[in-house]
Amino acid sequence: MKKILVVDDETAIRDTLEQILGYEGYHVLKAGSGPEGLQMAADGRPDLILLDVKMPGMDGFEVQKRLREGNLDIPVVVISGHGNIETAVEAVRKGAYDFLEKPLDRSRLLLTIANCLGHQKVVRDNRLLQDQLLSAPPLVGDSPAMQQVKGFIAKVAPSEATVLITGENGTGKELVVRAIHRASSRADHPLIEVNCAAIPRDLVESELFGHEKGSFTGADRPRTGKFEQADGGTLFLDEIGDMNEQAQAKVLKAVEESRFQRVGGEETREVDVRIVAATNRDLTVPDAGFRQDLFFRLNVLAIHLPPLRERGDDIELLLNWFMADLAARLKLKPLRFAPETLAILREYTWPGNVRELRNLVERLLIMASGDPVRPADLPLLRTGRPEASGDDDFMNCRDFQDFKARSEAVFLQHKLRENLYNVSKTAEALGMQRSNLYKKITKYGLQTQPDIGS
Prior knowledge:
Blueprint: E1 3-7, H1 11-23, E2 27-31, H2 34-44, E3 48-52, H3 60-69, E4 76-80, H4 85-93, E5 98-101, H5 106-135, H6 144-156, E6 163-166, H7 173-182, E7 191-195, H8 204-209, H9 226-229, E8 234-238, H10 245-257, E9 259-261, E10 268-270, E11 274-279, H11 292-298, E12 301-304, H12 315-330, H13 339-347, H14 353-367, H15 391-395, H16 400-418, H17 423-430, H18 434-444
Parallel strand pairs: 1-2, 1-3, 3-4, 4-5, 6-11, 6-12, 7-8, 8-11
Antiparallel strand pairs: 9-10
Helix pairs in contact: 2-3, 12-14, 17-18
């Protein structure tokens, strides 16, 4: 239900407008003065304000000014019994959507309100879409695993079914959601994202469904929840596995019935949203604490995103894409990667997945000693760097292959240092061919000369 605030010093005008607008399904707030109207605008966050110009004390133009200063982005339709061209022009110049002259014509009033609310929705949706498009990188990769993900997106995007995306942190779940939304029939409506893991457990319901003023300590004004914000579009519930069971029950009901109540409210609100959820947890295990009825409701269309260590063919593409993108953003010259550097990065297991790769490229772009990027420019990588040492580091290995790689790198680096970085002598001491040792030096990015000053 849209909320309209009427600010007019005449009681009869306020009551008449309340009757007309209430009959049309609007919720009407009434204020008899400019200061009272400003307070109600701040507390009630109406969708539109009908504002009288001539009022004692603070007139309508001053109210408009105070609204702007308070960053209250609420559309205003000015009404006045002293209508003339100058007043209308002044009202619009100060930011009003339109000007209506008293006595108000009912048909024109309702049409103006409908047009204003429709215009605001288009502006809001376009702003959201523009922000999303500017911040959304493409799904980079030609590996078989990524081809499968892109094929999944093409198939499921046109449908209205719920989608569940699983995968490790940093694998690009958010990018898949945005790609699904852009290719769907809801692309002209907002994509609203909520990170369930980042919200305090006792505030999840308020974040999702909104709340009424006074519903709990600190609720000093009504709040619109994510379900309402996503009406007509897509709601992305990220890290849904971290949602508490009480909130899960309400989400299940909202998904099944497309309606809900705000926290502390009695009015049932209907919405049209498509749900896409994501998690890095296995929601099917008994101790996951996740309702199985909600899991089955979300798991209509499901995709598991592969970790970067299973997408070796995409590493170089991703490195080059992020290098070009970040160089443009930071206004720096893009760098190339030396073949031996690429070899190390291909062998690395990327525990942080694509997010870790992006962060590495940004660091290299700023900190690398030259072009191309050499192995010496790389920071400590947990699988391929020789400086790794200590029991704790080895206990952090992802799997046995990771352990073998780390321990081999540490052992070979120690032997190189022991033989004063003489590769031939080191190979002889190890009983291995020199060419094989050179391959491992390249693979792990081993240090082949002493540090300056050592």
